[in-house]
Design a protein that fits this description.
The structure is a single chain. By secondary structure, this protein is mainly α. It has 2 domains: 1-41; 47-236. The protein has 6 helices and 3 strands. The protein has helices spanning 2-38, 74-85, 97-102, 111-130, 178-193, 224-230, and strands at residues 137-141, 144-147, 152-153. A 3-stranded antiparallel beta sheet has the order 1-2-3. It is globular.
Length: 238
């Protein structure tokens, strides 16, 4: 009698085990197939996209752009939000030779990864211009007194026009606050990337003598220290 009860029970357990194993196999096959089709997922908050140690040289702290965990800081979020809203934004162009010169792997990056690249770029400009310090004032700058993280014209009348048709952020009365400074800088860069169609009438490159850049360092043939920092962005290397 007991034996008659055990046999059906063993059959049920065996069937359940086979079914469970089958589901595990199916799940494994599905995961392998998905990976093969879509490729590995790269999140922009992984440790490899933290700012390199160079960004903390000379007493700088650029964590407002990307923090020590590789996540966007407050200025990083401002950058991503603003480049998405600029009229005629040049920041995601796939056909921009000027961007590809600086980042050979550009066209293989996702939109999120491209946005992170621009956070690196503006962190690099800020590092060179002010060691990422908003309180820095330079009374002997090329364009008069320069202020803030990106060292933009402090005098409104010398600055209001610099964003061209990319926005009016450069027209604010006080350019020293971080967010105001960064937004104006983004609009200036957007005009630079337009090349002949922008107000700076350059070649559309991110750096070099023909770029007609606002920032003196990236007007150098090799882009100076700014581009040396930017070239550390790991996803740009093919």
């Amino acid at each position: 009698m007991i034996r008659n009860k055990i046999i059906p029970l063993l059959f049920v357990l065996s069937s359940y085990s086979a079914l469970a194993s089958n589901e595990v196999i199916k799940a494994g096959v599905k995961a392998l197939t998905t990976t093969a089709i879509q490729g590995p997922t790269v999140t922009c908050e992984e440790e490899s996209l933290k700012l390199s140690k160079k960004y903390y040289g000379n007493g700088a702290d650029c964590s407002k752009f990307i923090n020590s965990n590789g996540k966007l800081g407050p200025l990083g979020k401002t950058i991503v939000s603003h480049i998405n809203s600029i009229p005629g934004s040049q920041y995601y162009r796939k056909d921009s030779v000027g961007i590809q010169m600086a980042c050979p792997n550009w066209n293989n990056l996702s939109r999120e990864q491209q946005a992170y690249y621009w956070v690196w770029v503006f962190a690099a400009i800020s590092w060179k211009e002010s060691t990422c310090g908003a309180s820095v004032i330079n009374t002997a700058a090329t364009h008069g007194t320069a202020a803030g993280m990106l060292q933009l014209n402090q005098n409104q009348k010398d600055r209001y026009w610099r964003g061209g048709e990319s926005g009016n952020s450069c027209g604010v009365a006080n350019i020293r606050p971080d967010e105001a400074n960064i937004k104006c800088g983004l609009e200036i860069m957007n005009e630079q990337l337009k090349g002949k169609n922008g107000i700076y009438e350059g070649n559309g490159a991110l750096f070099g003598r023909g770029a007609h850049a606002y920032w003196q360092d990236i007007r150098k043939k090799d882009g100076g220290m700014i581009m040396r920092l930017v070239r550390d962005f790991p996803l740009c290397k093919k």
